Amino acid sequence: MAKKIRLAVLLSGGGTTLENLCERIDAGQLDAEVVVVVSSLSQVKGVERARRRNIPVHVVRRRDHATLESFSAAIDAILDTARVDLVCLAGFMVLWKIPDRYLGRVMNIHPALIPSFCGQGMYGHFVHEAVVAKGVKVSGCTVHFVDNEYDNGPIILQKTVPVGFDDTPDDVAKRVFEQECLAYPEAVQLFAEGRLKVEGRRVRILPK
Fold it and tell me: What is the pairing mode between strands 196-199 and 202-205?
């Protein structure tokens, strides 16, 4: 069995990704525990979900800090105190300047196949609207390590879904979210098993 790693989840909204990770942990499918949640907003469902599960929650709002550095340092301090092994961004809608000590230990999931439909302003439903408007035949999701540029870090894994001619953005969103619920826990488990090796811009998945 892999080491049980200590997870932090950073969110700004409903907390569906947090709930998905917790459910996988409860089912014995993920060798991890969520030890802290950081939210950029106080009145969101993700905060309620964390409290319901008795997970420590910290609200760190960007507007309460004069600079990005101060905001980021507040988050860093929470993560350090919780002795976090891996940080999972879960719809965290504020820029956090990641310190060097956390590079290679922060993941995000994007609702498209990077490098398509990504970058600043490309998030949530905007992505699926762009996918449909462009007429692509395949979309999906991407789990990647995070650096200090939007959607730029090395790709860990991707899952694809078909996009039909008559699909609406909602249709695509539903299909992609189903794959997100599989992809993120899979990537976290690979990290827990020590099977992810970053080689330049690429991630090698090591055999068991």
Answer: antiparallel
Output Rg (C-alpha) for the chain, integer angstroms.
17
Say how many Å lie between the first and final Cα of the chain, rounded: 11
Domains, the chain, with CATH or none: 1-102 (3.40.50.170), 108-208 (3.40.50.170)
pLDDT single digits (tens) 115-147: 999 988 888 899 999 999 999 999 999 999 999
Which residues are CB-contacts of 148 (< 8 A; sequence separation ≥ 6)?
97, 98
Catalytic site includes residue 110:
yes
The secondary structure of 171-193 as a DSSP string is HHHHHHHHHHHHHHHHHHHHHHT
Q: Which of 110, 125, 128, 144 is catalytic?
A: 110
